[in-house]
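To: structure subgroup
Subject: Chain for Friday's discussion

All,

I'm putting the inputs and outputs inline so they're searchable in the archive.
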Amino acid sequence: ISDQKPLGCWSVKHGQILTCPVVCNFETHEYIAVHDDKVLRIWKNEDINLDKAFKATLSADVYRIHSLPHGGPVVLFRGGGVRTLDVLLEAPQQEIENVISGEVIRWSGAFMEGQQPVLIFTTEKDEDFFVYIQKPKLSSLHKYKLEQQESAKPLCFTAHITNQTVTLLCLYSNDSVYQVLIPLQQDTEEEEEEEILSKSLLLNLSVSGAVLKGTSLVVLDKDHVAVLGSLAVPGKEPRECLTIWNTKFQTLQTSKELPLGTSGQLWCYEEKFFLIHGKVLTVIMYKCETSSLAAAVGKLKDNQTPDVSSFVNWNTLEDEELVVSFQSQKSVALKAESRMNLRSRRSTVPEEQPKTLSVGQLLLNLKDASTYVLETELKKLMAKAPTPDLQATIGYVVTALTDRCKRNPKYYPRNFLQEIAETRDLSYSLCPDLMAVALEKKDMHLLQICLERFPDIPEEVTYVCLKTFLSMSEAHLQKIDVNLDSVICYIDVESDDKEFKTEIVENGFSAEMDQDMRDTKIPKENPSRSDGESCPVGLQKAALLNAVLHSAYTETFLLPHLKNLPARQAILFLRYLYYLYVKCSEKVNTTLPGIRSPTINQIMDWMCLLLDAQFTVMVMLPEAKELLSNLHKFVRAQVRFYSQLNKIEGSLRELQRLNHLRESQTYSIEVLEII
């Protein structure tokens, strides 16, 4: 998530439907999915084709799979039956009992109690709600009926287990949260009749006349819950927001408006919230602090600014907002921070000034400083930043610089930004505006550095850079300072500005070796033909294109953008890739000389990707016909050459073995017969 890069993508066949969320088996590092209700699939990260993954058809429909870090996956069937995955895989067609009759499962959760997994699920039938608690390894099952609530019904559930007691929290339609305590019973005989669970009011979701219509509820700790919903204020339009409540003191701890809307779902894992905000997955860090009356009362006094909190780092949602307090997993809003510093100044003598300003406060103070003062202070800040926070600090520094560039079009610290990008371990996610500003300012050198060093550049940005490089004229690029280390060792510029020539003499690609290669030889009087022996671009453009080849990408997300590349630019790029392909093939080790030169795999991957995206266009264009023909002949010559090498592979291995057995002091004449 931090690098904004998809790590894997798998698809079921057309007509098949994934019918429950996919989970990860923490013990085996495998993924587990169910499609079409009964078909179980298990695969690992390196598996590419889901259709070839392990498959097991079960005898009953699966409702949900829960994966526990130390308890393994647990499978809940729609009929209420529960099996651990290990037991299920021993006999996939084993009969699964129906625990429920005419009931529909509304929620389920899995927990560890000691060494035993415990699965809890709730069901509904004729407006009655039931709670089931199962220990699958002990074949233990207990059923309870939830006490009815007049004119209200449960909307969602969540639970946790503490000291052999299940705490079930229910969000009801009357804008209240109720608590149900269920002691974990020992494994005795089945109860003769189901027990009715009483509930107690835990929280009213209202503050200052506003009522929260909750849609999702999660537990943070014993004193705090988070509720996602729509805040209804009299006389105003409802606003979706994420709220955190103190259940001990019945107060709203903090809240954040979500103007782009949500899916109504909220997840919580390892002190991070996960929610869909607009069209993106948003991750928000939080840290639970010890619940105290002072904190709760203080929050009530300041309820006009409920987003002021040291509880949650809301900066994930603030694209343009400066980070005002640089603390691990904490963020204090600007208003509170400035008040605190003002109070501290008034209450202390001059000799006792605060030792250090927070990063956010320093950046705020430098917001309107002169260029010299700004850059000098930022250099000092990066030099003394503590090691654990260094990378994030540099990200804030770059963000401050790019913000000033956007506010003042005449300001652009070219050398300073290039120095930071070259000497610091940055990433796109730390300073997402940097490359946008570089594109706007036509800073090709900075874009080159970012493409070579950033591991998480979005495919759309990579495409924009590629299109920009290809569209720039050679005359303009010659005036630009870019790093030529990746091209200077294999592209030689002649004094009369003629195209570069090379003779293929290695790897079996001479004219005597294959007739196809003789067909691709181009007469000297026409050096501009795309034969792969002359570089179709200048040094500067070649260096920039090499930077694009180094950038990380996911084919699925880059391909749609490459389809929009103009035809002439696509042909020029393919000619350059073909040129690199031929140059690599000249060397026995298929490696280009130089620093950060593209590898044969990068060249081949981009060539295939470009042909996939532009093949129809290139087939239709007359100027691309000869290029595709030469490329086809060259690849065919390689295939033939390597097929001939494969024929003598056994003999070459035998020769290698004999060389190891030969004594260094013994003279001998050996005759090897190659069959």
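Points worth raising on Friday:
Confidence is low (pLDDT under 50) at residues 299-310, 318-355, 493-532.
The CA atoms of residues 618 and 628 lie 8 Å apart.

D.
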